[in-house]
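Sorry to interrupt, but I need a hand with the structure work. I would like you to pick a protein and set down its sequence and fold. Please put the record directly below this note.
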Amino acid sequence: MSFKLIALLVALFSGVFMAIQGSLNSRLGKIIGLWEATLVVHVVGLLTIAIILFVLGLGKGDIGRLPGAPWYTLIGGLLGVLIVYSVVVSIPKLGVAVATTSIIVGQVMTALIIDHYGIFGLQRVPFTWLKGIGLVLLAAGAKLLLN
């Protein structure tokens, strides 16, 4: 199996997990509150990764190098809170399919910009009009799901 096919399957499973996670987080938000659900999700995530790193020893990196990381790379934690909260808010109002499609449109739009300019030190991947058309079609699909 090629490396790209494996990466595509991993990405596919990520999408599956995101839809399930969003549904579960939204349900929890209805029970305990939106910000409270966001907190619980992150505490459970922290405990999970702590077990993976410190109990199972599966980490391959060096957390001691954290002080050398650019400051903006730490914003991911803040964005994680905003992402979970936004999902918890949007899914009950839109449904899983529409909210997820809207999320994907936002991700792809932002990813096209990041790719084109090589933001955050990532490799540049030039924008093409075919990619733009793909984004428009995704947005049109999201609109169709609203009906």
In short: DSSP finds five helices and no strands in the chain. Helices lie at 3-32, 34-55, 75-94, 96-117, 129-146.
